[in-house]
Amino acid sequence: MTDSLSPETRLARGPGHDAATGAVVPPIHPSTTFMRDSSYELVGDHIYARYGNPNVDAVEELATTLDGGADAAVFASGLAGVAALFETVDSGRHIAAPRVMYHGAQDWLRRISDRRSIGLTLFDDVSVDSIRDALRPGETDLVWVECPVNPTWDIVDIEAVAAVVHQIGGRLAVDATCAPPVTMRALDLGADYVFHSATKYFNGHTDLLAGIVVTARGDARWDDVRLVRKLTGGVLGAFEAWLLMRGMRTLHLRYERASSNALAIARHLEGNPALEAVLYPGLESHPHHDLARRQMTNGFGGMMSLLVAGGEEAARRVVARVRLFSPATSLGGVESLIEHRFVVEGPHSVVPRNLLRVSVGIEDVADLVADLDQALAG
Ligand SMILES: Cc1ncc(COP(=O)(O)O)c(C=O)c1O
Fold first, then answer.
1. For atom 14 of ligand 1, which residue has the closest CA?
2. What's the number of domains the chain is made of?
């Protein structure tokens, strides 16, 4: 019967009750080591917590099901997951990735490219043609894209990109941090790996770091990703995995609410003379709106960017005036955040200086609109 359950039901139920005690909420297993019996066989499935533990397993099982993958691996942060996947690229091979992407992941890419003789091509836009031009047949091993793209919220045509990447024997990894599987399933669209910084929507309460990589196939490459996690100690701790599971149980509700709040705010702000543009894939005016509708079947998420008229100073004055939005980086939590993205990314950032990145939370939308209105009017 459980095979037919909807994602919403699976999320709400989480890992189910604890069979040993009948506890409705699963226990935390903080033990770092696991016993053997008198014949020196392991009593359960675990050996040592760096290899995984029951709380990590529960998150992996649920994440695998939600994304429709073959397996998932949970990491101590999003970047630990990104690093493990890139670590499986051999020297002499090639990676293609966007010029505009999460800056920390790009910093890591540049580092391994420099130190391990891995070719790196950064493509300027996320159109299929641009990505095709960045490929080196026979050499390109991994193509990394974000969807939606942070912080322009452009949308990648995952199905079309997967086709061109597979044509030259490469693999496609999609950073779907801002479009979790309650709205977009990148593996169904042809990606080989989907990545989530679970620090964001999966957990949703801004109180832990975690990363999840889900694979379409269990194969030697995937075994290597797991081996890297084991050897580098990149696994999530038991308490954080338990907290993450608690957060995940409301993912669908939080994402739905953040999406409807964000859409209402984007529509309200579009045309405000204090803004040059509102970037949000849910707006009909967004250049990739039709594609977003096709790929994001249950909401466009809570992320948007505001290009403030009057440049960097004007943008920073808006952040200084908000009273309800918290001026802080990160995204995907229940509370709304606003940030001047250029300052956060640093001097190498290619983000426009007048861009404010907004993570819309689950508060009353009227309160959020009133706060942005007064900050923009001031
Ligand atoms: C799109 C995206 N990918 C990856 C990461 C890295 O995740 P973490 O901060 O959990 O290491 C972030 C963090 O902000 C992100 O926004």
1. 330
2. 2
By most ligand atoms within 8 Å of CB, the mutation choice from 82, 109, 200 for ligand 1 is 200
Chunk the chain into consecutive blocks of 10 residues (it has 378) and report each block's average pLDDT, rounded to whole numbers: 83 94 96 98 97 97 98 98 98 97 95 96 97 98 97 97 98 98 98 98 98 98 98 98 98 98 98 98 97 98 98 98 98 98 90 97 98 96
Q: Identify any residues that bridge with 305 across adjacent strands, giving them in sequence order.
A: 279, 357
Task: Provide the domain limits for residue 19.
Answer: 2-248
Looking at residue 104, its amino acid is: G
The finding on whether 209 has its CB within 6 A of some atom of ligand 1 is yes
User: Are residues 235 and 302 located together in one domain of the fold?
Assistant: no
Instruction: State yes or no: cis peptide before 151, omega within 30 of 0.
Output: yes
Q: In what order do the strands lie in the sheet containing 355-359?
A: 275-279, 303-308, 355-359, 337-340, 326-327
Task: Tokens for 1, please give them.
Answer: 């019967």
| Catalytic residue positions, numbered | 50, 102, 175, 200
